[in-house]
């Protein structure tokens, strides 16, 4: 990199940092931080969605997979676009549920145990995506500077993500996401068009002997089961990921949520398609490089220094923004659906041990402010992800991303749909069984299934089968109706018809 490269990079980073710091001033309480105040307009919702969806996996990772496998790399962003469209369809029910997190929706229908289980397992899946973002940032930084080791590159990305989201929360993710979306679309789009021109157009790519059509121009080059399974993983993961639900639920109206999701559904596949073009072009011109360097090396080798520096900084911001949004989603879920219920349970138990109305001497109620607690957990999540990324700094970025989406989807997709569309028709024990069985079968499938079959088919199928069984075996209303106030007659006695 030359002085002009660094100048271009600092221009973009300066703009992003200024927006992030400014957004932090607008955070007054936990509602502002996690978006439950519902103040966001269409631009902010779309910015939060695209800012998280289009990260290292959608740019650096897509170009990497296209470099090694061709057109099948597009399934990641195509699946993301389909998932965003489903979110637009679900927006009215999600928005009117009156909650902040996906596990809260599940908990309202199936109880606190289901909410806590969904919080732990879905957060584990989201955590894997954070690792993927750190690996993407490491690949990008080491590609442009020989002086930075992989470990230090991951630490740099970690610090940037922390500054991005710890100050501004969802407001920061939304405002920076708006700026990032425009810059990313322009940058990756320009690279894709230039790459296609250098390769002689689509005809030039098709005719090049370095790109056998059976492998590189086949949507199912890795096998129908694997590629469609990857797409399904993305759809399930997008619909159940807290970062995306959080963005939708932050909108000031349902129509705002839907429009933001539609914008994200259009932009994500377009950006991914340009990344695929870069990966194919680099396979022809640079056949011996490490695959994760396909997009960074194209920018360095084929673009003028100043815009190249700006684009490299933009790619780094995609990693930072996506990692920040995912980390915030994890922290929000853990605080609202795991830590807070546990803390409330401990307080009730302490009060019981002290006696009603007679607090035991020395027992004090200690309540950590939710905003501070969310920030502490957020920092802990980022630190843990950095440790994993350092251990596996040579791993394939897309493997982490697909695994993350599949795990989240097999845990929460079925119960979330049941809570939204089949309220009162499936008993909680079936939902709990589905949430435990789905990821377990997926994990076993990694070891037992042939290489051409994505285990998400087995995991998601088993979870949905359990819920279908619960729906088929539901008790009659006369056997399940609660004997609550709504079942009482005017004289307070139990109504026999109820």
Which secondary structure elements does this structure contain, and how are they paired or packed?
Layout: H1 3-24, H2 30-34, H3 42-53, H4 57-69, H5 75-96, H6 102-110, H7 112-144, H8 150-198, H9 201-207, H10 213-216, H11 224-240, H12 242-249, H13 254-285, H14 294-302, H15 305-354, H16 370-391, H17 397-421, H18 428-448, H19 455-472, H20 477-480
Helix pairs in contact: 1-8, 1-15, 3-8, 3-12, 3-13, 3-15, 4-13, 5-11, 5-12, 5-13, 6-7, 6-17, 7-8, 7-15, 7-16, 7-17, 7-18, 8-13, 8-15, 8-16, 11-17, 12-15, 14-15, 15-16, 17-18, 17-19, 18-19
Mean pLDDT equals 78
Number of DSSP-assigned strands = 0
CATH fold category name: Sodium/glucose cotransporter
| Mass-distribution shape | globular
Number of domains: 1
Helix/strand order: HHHHHHHHHHHHHHHHHHHH
Helix/strand-derived class? Answer: mainly alpha
Our count of helices gives: 20
State the end-to-end distance. 75 Å
CATH architecture: Up-down Bundle
Strand content: under 5%
Report on the biggest sheet: none
According to CATH, what is the class? Answer: Mainly Alpha
CATH superfamily: Sodium/glucose cotransporter
Work out the radius of gyration. Answer: 24 Å
Characterization of this structure:
It contains 20 helices and no strands. With 498 residues, it is mainly α. α7 packs across α16 and α17 (397-421) runs antiparallel to α18 (428-448). The longest helix has 50 residues, at 305-354. The radius of gyration is 24 Å and the shape is globular.
